């Protein structure tokens, strides 16, 4: 577990708990600061928002392509 004074990170490590598509058990996706390997050193709000947008756009493109 990595933490700063206000934000906890690193509870769900990529390639250990979730895969590269952030899938965990039962098709659950973990898209938040718990997948960070290290603390960005700043408030992670923008990083988490962009991670959510990135995964949303990626999944939408996959569905439209019929994957």
From TrEMBL:
SUPFAM superfamilies: FAD/NAD(P)-binding domain. The keyword Flavoprotein applies. It holds the Pfam family GMC_oxred_C. Keywords: FAD, Flavoprotein. Its cofactor is FAD. GO terms for molecular function: oxidoreductase activity, acting on CH-OH group of donors. Residues 4-52 form the Glucose-methanol-choline oxidoreductase C-terminal domain. This is Glucose-methanol-choline oxidoreductase C-terminal domain-containing protein. It comes from Acacia crassicarpa (northern wattle).
